[in-house]
Structure formats: C-alpha cells, structure tokens
Design goal:
The protein is mainly β. Helix content is 0%, strand content 36%. The chain has a four-stranded antiparallel beta sheet, with no helix packed on it. Strands 8-14-13-10 form a four-stranded mixed beta sheet, with no helix packed on it. A four-stranded antiparallel beta sheet has the order 15-17-20-19, with no helix packed on it. Strand 19 and strand 20 form a beta hairpin. The chain is globular, with a radius of gyration of 21 Å. It starts with 15 loop residues before the first strand and ends with a strand.
C-alpha cells in the first residue's frame, strides 16, 4: 500500500494505492469498500482498479490537509475472481507531508545495468524508481526495448513496488545488443513526469538462465531465541527476484501455531531482500495503534516461509521453499 503504514511521505495531492496478491473483482472495489477518514469525517474521493497490476487507487476529491493523520481501510466484501472474500478489514494510518508533491520521479536502478554484458536470453528488463508511480502511465509504448538495430521487442509491462518490468514475448536473441528506453511522460502518483527520457543498453549471451535463486540469509536466523519484538522479518536471496512474485501469497508468517500473521510484503531490489511487515491494528480503522507496526508478540514462536511461487527475473522458481522459525523474548 502507499503510503506505507505510519509514514509521513504522502504529498497532499497524491492518491493512495493498495496492491493485491492476485486478480480481484473490479466492481467490488469502490468507495464503499475503499475508505479514507481523518479520524472524524470520511474523505470524499473516487476509486479505480488497475486489473493488470491488481492495484486499487483512491483519489481524494480535494487536496488532503497538510501534516494530518489519516486512516485508510479496505473493507470486507472485496473478493478475488474465485469468490474468496477479504477475511478482515485491512486498515492503516499515515501522516501527510506539509506540501503537495511537485517533484518528478527519477530512475534509481535498472536490471540489466547500463552496458551490462552476458545477459541471459530469458531475462526480464526492470527499472526501479525513487517513488511510487502511476501504473497506467507505464505501458509498452512508454517502456520499450529495441534491438538489433531499431527493431522493437514485443512484450508486456507490469508494475509492482516502485519497479516496472518489461517481459519479452519470446526469448532475446543470443549475442545481441539491445537498448531499453523509459519515455519522458511516465508519471508518479501525483502526476509529475520524469525529468527526461532514460535510455540504457546491454548485450546478451548465448544461452538462457536456468539457475534457481536460493536464500543466503534470513532475519531472524533459523531457530533463534529471545528475538526482540521489533525484529525485522526478512530473507535475502542470491539474485534479484521478480517483485510481482513476492507477495503475501508467497511470503507468509504464522504464529502462534498456524495462526496467520496479517502484514505486508515488499522486495528491495538493491539488496535482493524480501521483507514482511506486520500490521498491528486491523479492525480499528479510527484509533491508531500506539506500538510500532512491526512489533511482534512477546514469548511467541513464529514460522516464516518464502514459497516456490517466488521467481527470479528469468522466471526460475526457488528450488525449495525457504522456511525458518524463531521465538521472541518473553
């Protein structure tokens, strides 16, 4: 979701978003099921749903008040295409910044990097931005890949977690140079365009990537005891993952026992780390929970799992699920 839980990062002119782990019934996501309040009154706005990227967007009718705490809520009644409903209200709080967002986003990283060589033939092309983007502005016409020469590569563009991904329809040609371009009219959530078009090049190798990603570290460590309740739950992989495959469906935490922990999942492309953040105040859409949102329960054993549905940028699934447990201090 944007902005994140208990953050002060939303410009007064920016919409809110919630990203789902799967396709949802679009008509069920509306102003009755996606609500915003300042703690006293409901905030009027409009709601839309991006069916390609599974993103619900709440756009306030007027600018939000500066330096003000708001609570957003997704209400039960929303369901996926199989008819499975949201089992509990999903609520989070945030504070607006003091001004409107008028700064354009910038590209912070690309994969492959500029001038990269030895790129696998089944590699997806990725660009990561400095802030949350408007997914509808990221289209195959605005995120293009060319080569060899000026021949366009056919593909689809998806967006997840500040990252746009170009997936070619077929494998890239071996030992060939390509050029990727982000157009100058792609926008952030507030409608600010990037300062200028971004272009980078890379060349492929002779074969595809068939090596599955593996976990290189977990936090907390497996079987750890007396873990602080403020501990971050994360797993670091051997290579970049496709962020669209790192969701609450593939990264889960349970405890005590099989009781699912409700939270959000994010993937940091810079460190190849997936992080699970617990939400503490579900079903309390007005009151703000006094404890940090990531705090775990004391004296509790948790089991974290990153499933094989998580895949690398070449589409290779984890060789086996990554499962680890830890117990918080009493």
């Amino acid at each position: 979701m944007t902005p994140g839980e208990d953050t002060a990062a939303l410009g007064t002119n920016s919409p809110l978003t919630v990203t789902f782990s799967e396709a949802m019934v679009p008509d069920a996501i509306n102003t009755n099921t996606f609500r915003l309040t300042d703690g006293v009154s409901a905030v009027p706005g409009t709601v839309s749903f991006d069916a390609v990227n599974h993103i619900a967007v709440f756009t306030p009718t007027a600018s939000l008040a500066p330096n003000t705490r708001y609570t957003a809520t997704m209400v039960t009644g929303i369901e996926d295409l199989a008819g499975n409903p949201l089992i509990t209200d999903f609520a989070w709080c945030f504070v607006t910044s003091g001004t409107a967002d008028t700064s354009g986003p910038v590209t912070t990283a690309t994969e492959p990097a500029d001038a990269a060589t030895d790129v696998a033939l089944n590699q997806k092309i990725r660009a990561t931005f400095s802030e949350d983007m408007s997914a509808p502005s990221l289209t195959p016409g605005r995120f293009t890949v060319m080569g060899p020469g000026i021949a366009p590569v056919a593909g689809a563009v998806t967006y997840r977690g500040r990252t746009a991904i170009f997936t070619p329809v077929r494998a890239l040609a071996p030992n060939t140079g390509y050029t990727a371009t982000l157009a100058a009219d792609i926008e952030d959530l507030a409608g600010n365009a990037v300062p200028a078009a971004v272009t980078w090049g890379f060349s492929t190798r002779a074969n595809a990537d068939t090596t599955p990603p593996v976990a290189v570290a977990t936090n907390p460590a497996d079987a750890a005891l007396d873990v602080a309740i403020s501990a971050v739950i994360s797993v670091t992989l051997s290579e970049p993952l496709d962020p669209a495959t790192v969701t609450t469906a593939t990264f889960t935490v349970t405890g005590p026992g099989t009781l699912p922990v409700i939270g959000t999942v994010a993937f940091d492309a810079a460190t190849n780390t997936a992080t699970f953040t617990r939400l503490n105040h579900l079903n309390t859409p007005v009151a703000f929970h006094p404890a940090p949102v990531s705090n775990l329960d004391a004296g509790t054993t948790y089991i974290a799992t990153l499933g094989p549905g998580a895949r690398d940028m070449a589409g290779n699934a984890l060789g086996s699920p990554v499962v680890w447990s830890f117990t918080t201090a009493p």
